[in-house]
C-alpha cells in the first residue's frame, strides 16, 4: 500500500487489493510500476485488474468453488441428471456403463461412468417412486400360454406355430 500505514487500524484483504489496483484502474498506472511499489507480482496485478473490470467489486471478495464442474460447458443438463437418477431408481441392477449408454441413446451425449456414479451419489431426488415393471424373476403369468405345436413339412423342415394356424396351412409346394 502507498502512503502511511496505521498500526491500530484493521484493513480487510479486499480493501488492500482495491488500494493496490486503484491507481492502475483510475489513473492508468502500469502494472510493472505498481508491482514494484507494492511488492506484488505483476502477473497477479494484471489478473486481478482484469477480474475487477469484468466482475466489479465482487471479484475482490473470496468466493467458494461449487461442487459442480469448473466451467459451465462441463456441467450436465438437469434433464440428463434426472434421467440418470430415475434410471437407477427404476432399474437398480443397471451398471453405470449401461446408464451412460441409455443417456447417449436419449440425448446423444454420453457421460463417463465416473460421472454417472457421481450424479447417482449426489444428484437430484428421483421422480420415480417405484419400478414401472416388476423384475422378470418375479413376474407370474396369470393366463397360461397356449401350447405350441410343430409338424414336419417336406424336406425335413419343422414348422412351429399355433395349432389353429398350422391346421389351416397348406403343405408346401401345393
Question: Which properties best describe this structure?
Answer:
174 residues; mainly alpha; Arc Repressor Mutant, subunit A; two-stranded antiparallel sheet; rod-shaped
Map the helices and strands.
Layout: H1 13-27, H2 31-38, H3 42-55, H4 78-90, H5 96-107, H6 113-122, E1 149-152, E2 158-161, H7 163-168
Antiparallel strand pairs: 1-2
Helix pairs in contact: 1-3, 2-3, 4-5, 5-6
Structure commentary:
It contains 7 helices and 2 strands; from the N terminus they run H-H-H-H-H-H-E-E-H. It has 174 residues and is mainly α. Among the domains are: 13-60, no CATH class; 74-122, Arc Repressor Mutant, subunit A, CATH 1.10.10. A two-stranded antiparallel sheet has the order 1-2. Helix 1 (13-27) packs across helix 3 (42-55), helix 2 crosses helix 3 (42-55) and helix 4 (78-90) crosses helix 5. It is rod-shaped.
Rounded mean pLDDT is: 77
N-to-C SSE string, H for helix and E for strand: HHHHHHEEH
CATH class category label of one domain:
Mainly Alpha
Q: For the largest beta sheet, what order do the strands appear in spatially?
A: 1-2
- Quote the CATH topology of one domain: Arc Repressor Mutant, subunit A
User: What portion of residues belong to β-strands?
Assistant: under 5%
- Termini Cα gap: 106 Å
Task: Describe the sheet with the most strands.
Answer: 2 strands, antiparallel
Rg, please?
Answer: 35 Å
Query: Are there runs of 5+ residues with pLDDT below 50, and where?
Result: none
Structural class: mainly alpha
